[in-house]
Write a structure and sequence with these properties.
This protein is an alpha+beta fold. The protein is built from three helices and five strands. The protein has a single domain, classed as Double Stranded RNA Binding Domain (2-Layer Sandwich), CATH 3.30.160.20. Its EC number is 3.1.1.29. It comes from Pigmentiphaga aceris.
């Protein structure tokens, strides 16, 4: 069981939990485009993973096109020309995806507008009113 990814809180994702397969990259290419499978499809089954239950629920509740109906995260990496770099990119993106979706949102602390911002707002409204007044009929 090789360690693949270390997440926040010391949580590990093993190599056995991730299915990586090589596919042909899309788009224009050179001489190797039809011969070399350099793009990578990474599949990570959230339900069968060793993640904490809270994280699993948070990931499965996320409306994202990268999560299938079966709860499998699919990431395609094809930026680099080598398969190894694309694999590392896909793993890094999986880690970032999990971290982003499982980090609790900070509560916003409501603040009052400053006196200067209130004055600027009112001055802007007065200016706008003046512009609209000038659109009226011209008196002779």
């Amino acid at each position: 069981m090789a360690q693949l990814l270390l997440l926040r809180g010391g949580i590990l994702i093993d190599d056995s939990e991730v299915d990586v397969s090589a596919v042909r990259a899309q788009g224009a290419g050179g001489q190797n485009v039809n011969k070399v499978s350099s793009a990578v499809h990474l599949r990570f089954d959230v339900a069968k993973s060793s993640l904490p239950e809270m994280w699993k629920r948070a990931l499965l509740a996320t409306p994202d096109h990268r999560i299938t109906k079966d709860g499998v995260v699919v990431i395609k990496a094809q930026v680099h020309r080598s398969q190894e770099l694309n694999r590392a990119d896909a793993v890094a993106r999986l880690g970032a995806f999990i971290e982003q979706r499982t980090t609790p949102q900070r509560r916003r602390i409501a603040t009052r507008p400053t006196l200067g911002s209130k004055k600027r707002r009112l001055e802007g409204k007065v200016q706008r009113g003046e512009v609209k007044k000038l659109r009226g009929k011209v008196e002779e």
